[in-house]
Queue: 2 jobs
Job 1
Amino acid sequence: MSTIIDETVFDVDKINADFQRRDPAAQIQWAAETFGSRLIMTSSFGAESMCLIHLAVSVRPEIPIVLVNTGYLFPQTLAFMEAMRQRFALNVREYHSRHDPVVWLTVNGESDPRVRQNVEACCAANKNEVFDRAMRELAPAAWLRGVRAHQSDHRAAMLPVQWNKRVNCWAISPLLAWTHRDVHQYMKKHELPYNPLWEQGYNSIGCNPETCTRPVGSPDDQRSGRWAGMDKKECGIHLDQGAGI
Ligand code: SF4
């Protein structure tokens, strides 16, 4: 069983206060020095994912990058991931749903693959179980994630460094204070590519059913295209509850 690096190693309140003055690169540097090879990151290879990936691999080129493949990702996202993996020599760890995508829909009464009637059941089986399994297998001490405070009320309540009981490790959010403009400027400066769907108005990119990801009108509108018209705002990876599967 892997050792937990707990608050006897660092003062989390002090670190979170310090992080107000440190840019994302310095935050990641601290994480790399503190957690070493037990630091991983997650990425959906969505619209602006190359921002955090570039920051992370600039500090730790071999950092494992977990991609949760639900079986319903856009083909453009998978092609983008593969292109980025080759171009930047990324250490991508792709974890798949245990289910065949077509069979899962049939067995669960989802007659039209373009929409999802029961998003909670689908996310639990095909996304959260996969994420929980990846985290169990890799047993990281800390995990970098790309959430930003302005994306939702839930994310606005997050801290840059916080303990995640669900996966038993520290969750670190170096981009929490960054705006869409900050990310754009970083990507422009480093000539980083966006997921090609971004040019079609997909500002936040998850799975391909139109109930799960839609293009939106404004570049400042980050999340309204996800589960549009539903109360659901998060796939669950950033929630405290696991899939329970
Ligand atoms: S985002 Fe949609 S397709 Fe993807 S796992 Fe959740 S419900 Fe299923």
Job 2
Amino acid sequence: MTLCLTHIYGGVLPCPWPDCAEGAADAAFEFNGTRVWRQRFGEVFGEPTYAWIIDGVTAAYVAAQFTRRAMAQVNGAHSVADDGFMYHFTDETGLRGILASGELWLTDYRDLRDEQEIRDGQQVAKATFDALRPDLQRETNSLLDTLLAAPLPSGVYVSCFCVMRASSYHWSEFAADSSGAVLEMDPLGFEQLLACDPFAIQFTRVAYIWDVKAGLFAHLATWLEELVSFDLARGLFARDIYLREMTQIFGELLPMCKDVSLFREREIRVIVTPAQSKTDLASKLAVRQTNERRYITTRDVLPSFALPIKSVLLGPKFTGDISKLAIDGLKVPKFVA
Ligand SMILES: [Zn+2]
């Protein structure tokens, strides 16, 4: 099992980049009796990309691998809040639940409350694919059409944070008209969670600007085209396998997009996609449901994970009984506008 965070590669083979410390000296080798070789593909930001190609096997998984790599390069949440923290807004009930249980919910993306939010990514995707369409093969266009027409993919779980703590907009939008609270967290405290399965757990900024969102979908379409062409030339194009891979990656891209009118939210998200797990994460998860909202928790993903809560800020209109909050050892200032 290799995890190369430099080249954003994860899999049973060594990292395919030449001269990588996690890589292999030989450009071709036998794996389970089959020939595997290093293939160079197109450039991103002036650097060529590489993948292992297995003799006689479709390279559909490479299109997904390269798209995921581009997503991390374009939109990874390397830097977070101006002050180094991030903030999870919630109502009073949510606050009590989080403090008592020590875990956060990750909601099934299909059950997020705002329908328009979900549609936004699909609209940008359609416009981007339409613009590229004349340059793409028939097989690629057919796959993109199917992605656009399909229902939202299952198995994508999202938890939301803001990078700003003190804004009346955030208090009213996300903390029940200021009667809720915000948990101040240390993003570095999430590293343990991300590291337990880096290809199934992403920490990403939400993209609001059209060009950023379109760029993400253009990466998807461009890699798909390159790999479809590669496999067509080898006589190994397998539409169903491409569709399965691209449906999953499309499902990971949609929660990274929101309408530009929501720009001031400045949201970042932890996105968990168990289907991408290299550690069989899906078998450890018990999906629960409350009020038509399907969710998993941070503790499902990593049982030993402790939320890195630094303090709790109570909303200007918070009226709950503070003595019944499980806030041992936490700093709990009443919010002052
Ligand atoms: Zn590498």
